[in-house]
Amino acid sequence: MKRIIASVIVLFIALAAGGSALDRAPEPAPELPQQTAPAEESIEGTAPTESVEAEEPAPEEAPVGIVETQPQESPDAAPKPEAQSAEPKSIFDLMTGGSISYEADLAAYYLNEMTAAAAEGDVEAGRSAEEKRNAVIDASAAEPDPGKISFDDLYLLSKVICYEAGSDWLTDEFRICVGEVIMNRVASPEYPDSIHDVIYQKGQYSCVNTARFAGLVPTEECVDAALRLLCGERRMVPSVVFQSNDLQGEPFTMYTDRRLGTTYFCLSENQELYPID
Questions:
Q1: Would you call the peptide bond into 144 cis, given omega within 30 degrees of 0 as the criterion?
Q2: Strands 240-244, 251-257: parallel, antiparallel or unpaired by DSSP?
Q3: Contacts of 262 (CB under 8 A, 6+ apart)
Q4: Which residues are registered as beta bridge partners of 240?
Q5: Contact, 171 vs 214, CB < 8 A?
Q6: Is the dihedral of CA 225, 130, 214, 189 positive or negative?
Q7: Does the pTM of the predicted model rise above 0.90?
Q8: Host domain of residue 118
């Protein structure tokens, strides 16, 4: 009986204790420590791989000590053409320069006008160009002095050369020799001292008295030969003062042509008048 009473008392106490426990707020469950799962090992037993976030690739840099240079051209390469102005300067564009080069160029320009006029038979234009050229020379200090050239001398000498050696199959050397005889006579004490007087000397160049010579317009080749002679070119010695199809004294040289035959260029008989420099 006492055991029953004791059991009832224990049960009553337990019930009383449980009711009070129900009235309290439930306590939170204790947090368990987080555990990380062990990384999986590779099949070959290598170290476990770690996950790495993808990163943007860094810009490539040139290795230290290496300097980027432009490719060099081969020394054998052809030079690049220099940039040129849109329009080349004419002789008239140079007129404001006032330089010696301008004056020399202008003198050459008028000389070209003279030769063009001679090849066209335009005496008036040739004399006008000569006058302008002489004015440029007088006002300039160009070195070397280009020297004055008479258009009448150029034209007359060109016509004689053309009459005597104007055929297109003849050489420039032959034309020079024909004109040189005239120039040697001008410089000789045995003959007149001008081209006009030498050519028109009685009994010498009979061609000047013909109608053909009066209307003859010299070719460009003959004008060029005359100009070269007036500028000082020579092929023979100063004492060569004869040109003929027959020997007239000691020959210096000769020219043979199947149409003209043989032309002799002979020395003066008075060699003492032509001292050798």
A1: yes
A2: unpaired
A3: 245, 254, 255, 256
A4: 267
A5: no
A6: negative
A7: no
A8: 93-139
Within-domain flag for 20: no
Amino acid sitting at position 191 = Y
The tokens for 80 are 């690049």
What was the pLDDT predicted at 51? 47
Mark whether 156 and 178 lie in a shared domain: yes
* Total of domains in the chain: 2
- Using 70 as the pLDDT threshold, list the residues of the chain that sit under it: 1-100, 142-144, 277
Q: Are the C-beta atoms of 243 and 265 separated by less than 8 Å?
A: yes
**Is 18 part of a structural domain of the chain?**
no
Same domain, 192 and 169: yes
Two tokens at 264?
A: 């002799």
